[in-house]
Amino acid sequence: MYAVLKIADQQVKVNKGLRLKVPKLDIEEGTKHQFSDVLLVSNEDGTIIGDPLVQGASVEATVVGHGRDKKVVVFKMKRRKKYRSRNGHRQYYTEIQVDDISLPN
């Protein structure tokens, strides 16, 4: 059984027990959060596709922690013009663990 969620304007495919990094959410560590923006739910019986969301479906997850990803180097250059620009960026993330996927009634 799996579901496709919309978390921080990104679509994420999750199943029970999965641990993943999503863009930073303002939720305390160790708390449970229920995501109701479910776009698709699939199980043994079939697939339910939302229009745009599946009514009554939700995914419960526990916030494991917060952190920052590896540095991404942004390098720009124009040849023969003596222009070079180098910047670095580290994206904040929230690590969650999916506990349960509930289907609509």
Describe the protein's architecture and organization.
The chain is built from no helices and 10 strands. By secondary structure, it is an all-beta fold. It has a domain at 2-65 and 95-102. The strands form 3 sheets. A 4-stranded antiparallel beta sheet has the order 2-1-5-6, with no helix packed on it. A 4-stranded antiparallel beta sheet has the order 3-10-7-4, with no helix packed on it. Strands 8-9 form a two-stranded antiparallel sheet. Strand 1 (2-7) and strand 2 form a beta hairpin. It is elongated and about 65 Å long.
Average of pLDDT:
95
Radius of gyration: 19 Å
Terminal CA distance: 16 Å
In the sheet with the most strands, the strands line up as 2-1-5-6
Portion of residues within helices:
under 10%
Alpha-beta content class:
mainly beta
Low-confidence stretches: none
List the total number of helices: 0
Strand proportion:
over 45%
